[in-house]
Amino acid sequence: MSASEVQRSPSRMDVASTSARSFAPTRALRPKAKLLPEHARGHNRSLVLQTLYRSGPCSRADIARTTGLTRVTVSDLVAELIADGLLEELGQREESRPGKPATLLDLRRDAFVILGLDLSEHSGFSGAVLDLDGRLLAREEVALEGSTGDAAIERVLTLVARLVEHAGPTPILGLGVGSPGVVDLGGVVLSAPNLGWTGVPLQETLHDRFGVPVVVANDANAAILAEHGFGGASADAMLIKIGHGVGAGLLLDGRPMYGSRFAAGEIGHVVVGTDGGDVCACGKRGCLETWLSIPRLERALTGAPAEARDRILEQAGERLGIALAPVVGALDLGEVILAGPTGLLDGPLAAAALETIRSRTMSEFHGDLSLRMSTLGQDIVLRGAAVMVLSGQLGVS
């Protein structure tokens, strides 16, 4: 299917007319209660969808009880959502008690597909077609081969075109993108040095080319959303994404945090310790990335004797703990998640990081802090991209 065909694709809801709705940092990912009348309809629509998305088949009465909405409101919203092709009636529930059995409803999980991109790896870009539950239906990759600037953008466009072909006739709910660097809420990549991008309007470029809603965020921010949506992360959690660089995504009370300059979580260039260290690409000495990035760890471990390997990993974990302890203490986080190669990060590195955090914070408050590996593997950014689209277009997570 060509880009022009995407733009002409019929849809049961208007998902291709504008870029993705604002993925606002002030909005909780999962609506939990009814809202004031002036904001109510859109919020309550999301509330119904959220209930079915997480709970599965329910009757109209079940939804009313769960959400606190009136049965009349629920019936009106359900009728609208059925007309939009998002809900379907499954038939009557088997009842043991007298009376007319209730009709069960569920989200039409095959009604749309989501396109997700991960631009964070230095060797190439990856993309996937996902269903509404975040399952990968098809995957594509494009080698970067050192491309930067406009050439790298062309690789992105090529990748999306391939994913559109995989989607076929199924309407596309939206396109989510996890990009390295600093990304503002309008999907402009303010700075991604490894790709040679400065002020690149990636969200607008992709929307103009493919005519579907687009949301672009930093890759670590996408990753923490994946953990919250599909990995069971708590509402107050931090994810550290370790690869070619080091970045973090942060949730507070279920809300993604971006910072005043959209650079929250850029911890890779925080200097850890006062004992110097290697010179970083940014020009400083002893940044966290010089201890913890995967290329640095692999170089340090190559040829190292077996008895030295654990100490190298422990030192990297200690530096991570030094960087994280003030954050954990200041924000009272209950969970820290590591995303990256399990063989390097799990074990001595993770144990040293947790011990360092605990030794540098008040044990009565942070003694039960959880530090764990992500369970979502290499697809974490792709699945986080799906969460961004689900939240922006349907208000669910």
From TrEMBL:
Residues 1-21 have a biased composition (Polar residues). The keyword Transferase applies. InterPro entries: ATPase_NBD, HTH_CRP, HTH_MarR-typ, ROK, ROK_cs, WH-like_DNA-bd_sf, WH_DNA-bd_sf. It comes from the Bacteria. SUPFAM superfamilies: Actin-like ATPase domain, Winged helix' DNA-binding domain. Keywords: Kinase, Transferase. Signal peptide: none annotated. Transmembrane segments: none annotated. Residues 1-23 are annotated as: Disordered. It holds the Pfam family ROK. GO terms for molecular function: DNA binding; DNA-binding transcription factor activity; kinase activity. This is Sugar kinase.
